[in-house]
Amino acid sequence: MKKISLLRMTLAATALSLALPMAAHAHRGWLLPSSTVLSGAEWVAVDAGISNDVFAFKLGPLPLNKLRIVGPDGKDITPENLNTSGKTRNSFEFKPSAQGTYKASVTNETLVATYTQGKNNKRWRGKAENFAKEIPADATNVNVSLAQANFVTFVTVGKPSDAVLKPSNVGLELVPLSAPNDLYAGETTQFQFLIDGKPATNLDVSIIPGGARYRDKVGEIRTRTDAEGKFSVAWANAGMFWLNASEDNGELQVSGPGSAVAIKPSHALPVGTIDKPTRRASYTATLEVLP
């Protein structure tokens, strides 16, 4: 029992660190657009990084895995000047022209397994199609976990539209209940989190303003989703904000960025298989609040 519990704890910690935004060491991934509200066709540059202080170029680049830019007509836009070899950040540019709201997103997925072979505890990381040939046939106590991390930001040209706000009903998703580029200091905005299309209830949400180097305190806002997965944010100041939440299926308890990981009792920990891995899904949005 102790060996199995140790394996599950190892897998839990691994999945947590791979998901980045809510990691115990407070590594936070983000997309940072140069502009979020445009009056006409203009170039937008987006930086992708990982840092302790949000939007600071310190720890390294965020991999641009499954980068996708979707326009108000639902069609994909090809990014230009793509840089995936940065030391402090990666980046890309695009030029929205048609009126409406655009969504840029990056999706990182990591499949991890822990297992016992003989007297040794081992860990595997790779693709699902390689699982059968890379996990030894004599492996026992196999536990498989999928870490999913989504990073999103929105840009609006002229009048906002809502086509890109419709959920795909896959994984953890933020649903802005009003235009995400129509946020103003002194006002309150309501959002909703869904997990596989259903309300993500009792989900801890963290909102951190950028520019921490110019403040004595981080200025984090903490809130939680209700029975419908909804929550509200009162914007005290203008600026860029990092919004993050994560959902797991009983494997981990995480109270917020920078917090220690709390493992639930062993009897509550599910065992994941390659066909049905346990999952930890996180979602990070970058939003701009205007004066």
Provide a quick synopsis of the model:
The chain has 291 residues and is mainly beta.
Please provide a written account of the structure.
The chain is mainly beta. The chain has one domain (2-289). The chain has 2 helices and 20 strands. It has helices at residues 2-19, 131-134, and strands at residues 28-33, 37-38, 44-51, 60-61, 68-70, 80-83, 90-94, 100-117, 120-126, 140-157, 172-176, 188-195, 198-199, 204-209, 221-224, 230-234, 239-248, 252-253, 262-263, 278-289. The strands form 4 sheets. Strands 2, 5, 8, 9, 10, 14, 15, 17 and 20 form a 9-stranded mixed sheet that branches. Strands 1, 3, 4, 6 and 7 form a 5-stranded antiparallel sheet that branches. β18 (252-253) and β19 form a beta hairpin. The longest helix has 18 residues, at 2-19. It is globular, with a radius of gyration of 20 Å.
